Write a sequence for this structure.
């Protein structure tokens, strides 16, 4: 088992200053990261971008231009269909696997046509998709498979193999708030392919701009300010978001410095969240609340862990109880609920109205679990009193 190393987040301003003063050239730093990812994942090619969405766009740029459709899970980040449309293709939705919240491979088989340019499989909440389903897809489909590991950097299957071993392209994100993060960072790796980089604009964001971005995001992440602006910000995350820069820029020197530093500590971060996540999941399961099925992979290492309540009507009550105890819990924003046509998917319809998400980070201590026990006690009493 890995030793737990507590890493500092991007709030570590001395590290930021040291990064700014570091005279290592940008190209040398980017090449170090490229080699690190090739070593970790066995990629044949890897490049860094300034975001996960641009990494996905670059992957789609490398698909067959004559084919117009891209299959993607119906339960995923709403930026995915935006990127697909930006790439001048049409999203085709596949249902989800209720054990993992990832794509249902049987539904994928039904959706593949001669116009399918790519299939995007998302390792949702950091939990790997079914390896069996992914390998069968590889055997039956000769087009492009894109593994979206934006929130699964470091995730591995039970046999120890990391995600990103089956797809033609695997994308990552290192934005602030991701398990391993800088202020703005993304990357794309490929297997048995060279990545066509023609659309990448070789422009670097300044380190000063990155530092300003980090400070702004840190202010926004303060609980009181976040709660004040959460509703407004949530409305901006829509199915057809227009927030997509025209140019694909590369991360700044500072972003790459932070990302490289955090990658080196990834195993410690994941182990810490694994332990906290396991304790939370076990607490929920004692009262009959379902979480991701551990048999489909490892426990999720992403900072947000999803749960499925037994009944739809219990969600708002549980949110209320959590908040009364000072614990933030919310509905996931990435379920495309604004579009009624998507509710025709049976698994999606069955799950999405009962899903809640709780955040796990390095600040969680013993008081959190004491509060969680009180939440569960109040919840159990509420369920018992219902007719």
């Amino acid at each position: 088992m890995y030793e737990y190393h507590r890493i500092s987040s991007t709030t570590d301003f001395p590290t930021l200053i040291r990064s700014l003063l570091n005279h290592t050239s940008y190209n040398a730093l980017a090449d170090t990261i490229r080699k690190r990812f090739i070593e970790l994942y066995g990629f044949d090619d890897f490049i860094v971008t300034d975001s996960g969405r641009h990494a996905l766009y670059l992957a789609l740029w490398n698909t067959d231009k004559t084919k117009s459709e891209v299959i993607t899970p119906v339960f995923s980040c709403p930026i995915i269909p935006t990127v697909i449309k930006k790439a001048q293709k049409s999203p085709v939705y596949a249902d989800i696997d209720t054990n993992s919240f990832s794509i249902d491979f049987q539904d994928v088989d039904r959706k593949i046509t001669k116009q399918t340019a790519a299939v995007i499989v998302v390792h949702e909440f950091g939990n790997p998709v079914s390896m069996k389903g992914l390998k069968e897809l590889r055997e039956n489909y000769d087009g492009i498979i894109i593994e979206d590991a934006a929130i699964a950097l470091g995730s591995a299957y039970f046999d120890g193999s990391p995600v990103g071993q089956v797809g033609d392209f695997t994308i990552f994100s290192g934005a602030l708030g991701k398990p391993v993060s800088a202020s703005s960072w993304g990357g794309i790796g490929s297997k048995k392919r060279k990545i066509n980089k023609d659309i990448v604009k070789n422009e670097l964001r300044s380190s000063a701009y990155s530092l300003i971005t980090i400070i702004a995001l840190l202010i926004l992440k303060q609980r009181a300010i976040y709660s004040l602006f959460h509703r407004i910000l949530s409305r901006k995350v829509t199915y057809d978001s227009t927030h997509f820069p025209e140019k694909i820029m590369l991360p700044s020197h500072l972003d790459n410095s932070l990302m490289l530093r955090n990658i080196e500590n990834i195993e410690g971060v994941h182990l810490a969240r694994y332990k906290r996540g396991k304790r939370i999941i076990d607490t929920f399961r004692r009262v009959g609340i379902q979480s991701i099925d551990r048999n489909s992979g490892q426990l999720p290492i992403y900072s947000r862990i999803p749960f499925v309540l037994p009944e739809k009507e219990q969600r708002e009550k549980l949110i209320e109880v959590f908040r009364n105890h000072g614990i933030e819990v919310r509905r996931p924003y990435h379920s495309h609920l604004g579009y009624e046509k998507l509710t025709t998917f049976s698994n999606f319809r069955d799950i999405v109205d009962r899903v809640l998400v709780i955040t796990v980070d390095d600040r969680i201590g013993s008081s959190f679990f004491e509060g969680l026990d009180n939440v569960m006690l109040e919840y159990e009493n509420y369920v018992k009193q219902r007719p």
Summary: Residues 1-11, 236-240 have pLDDT under 50 and may be disordered. The first strand starts at residue 45 and ends at 49.
